[in-house]
Amino acid sequence: MQLSGKTVIVTGGSDGIGRHICLKLAAEGCRLAVLGRNSDRLAAVVQESRDAGALQVRSYVCDMADAQAIAATAKAVEEDFDGVDILINNAGIWHKAGPLDTITDEMLVATVQTNLTGLMQLTRAVLPGLRRRDAAAILNVSSKSGVVAQAGQSVYTATKYGVRGFTDVLKEDEAASGVRVAGLYQSGTNTGMFAKAGEEVPNHIFTEPEDLADVVVFMLSRPAKLWMHEVRIEL
Ligand SMILES: NC(=O)c1ccc[n+]([C@@H]2O[C@H](COP(=O)([O-])OP(=O)(O)OC[C@H]3O[C@@H](n4cnc5c(N)ncnc54)[C@H](OP(=O)(O)O)[C@@H]3O)[C@@H](O)[C@H]2O)c1
Question: Which CATH number covers residue 149?
Fold first, then answer.
């Protein structure tokens, strides 16, 4: 897909991998709807994206655990940008690793809502508009944890396996509509995700988020006859 001029929603665009996806897509001349919760970080990404060459960029405060906010944001983006070409579902949280009974109910619910339920709700809201475009795509940022069972990650892994199942079925469902669907399954990436959950990890050995963002641009910019449905990245 030719990315220049395309309108892209990036969830979790205020930080980490999503921020770098925004900056790389800005350099490609995209129009960006950047979603997140933290308005200061969102404002910074809006400015950085403008500086990097985005044709148009707006931020939206939207909690992915709030179904009403998701529906309202999807509507607002459609109106502000006169349609959407690409949805990148990237927002996600980590719960500190440990056996299931060490994960609080609050954390369990927040992880499922943010990583899986909200992703499906936003996709459902944006999908009819995507089908009206000549070329459209949905890229879901899952994880290696969407493919491999690793100890201590029960709830996180359940959400990421869920995203993989959702991605695979959506691809089948949308085959005739022309909306391309892809999943990205990466291992540890050097962002603040683990620290936000109070987890200490050897972040410095992990993949850099800007390199992962390059992969996203590569996946989306392939010609129409070559679609990368699934990319797996490990250290
Ligand atoms: N880092 C890794 O090692 C790694 C590995 C595999 C997969 N992943 C996946 O990659 C994606 C991005 O992770 P990251 O490493 O970039 O994490 P990050 O640096 O912590 O950034 C997470 C982003 O998600 C947003 N977010 C979190 N909870 C939200 C909510 N309830 N509503 C709306 N936005 C919310 C944050 O926005 P605010 O700050 O504005 O709230 C932030 O922009 C996630 O889906 C994660 O599971 C990460």
Answer: 3.40.50.720
Task: Report CA-CA distances (Å) from 162 to 25, 49, 170.
Answer: 27, 31, 12
Domain assignment present for residue 233? The answer is no
Domain count, the chain: 1
- Residue 134, pLDDT above cutoff 90: yes
DSSP 65: T
Q: What is the mean pLDDT of residues 8-24?
A: 98
Atom of ligand 1 nearest to the CA of 89: 45
- State the distance from the centre of ligand 1 to the C-alpha of 38, rounded, in angstroms: 12
Residue 227 lies in a domain: no
Q: Which of 37, 108, 166 to mutate for ligand 1's pocket (most ligand atoms within 8 Å of CB)?
A: 37
Considering the domain boundaries, does residue 230 fall inside one?
no
Helices (H), 101-235: 105-112, 118-131, 154-173, 193-196, 209-220
Confidence of residue 224 (pLDDT cuts 50, 70, 90): confident
**Which ligand 1 atom is at minimum distance from the Cα of 192?**
19
The tokens describing 32, both together, are 């960006």
Whole-number Å distance, alpha carbon 110 to ligand 1 midpoint, is 12
Nearest CA to ligand 1 atom 8: 143
Q: Which domain holds residue 32?
A: 7-217
Whether the pTM exceeds 0.85: the reply is yes
Asked if residue 229 is part of any domain, the answer here is no
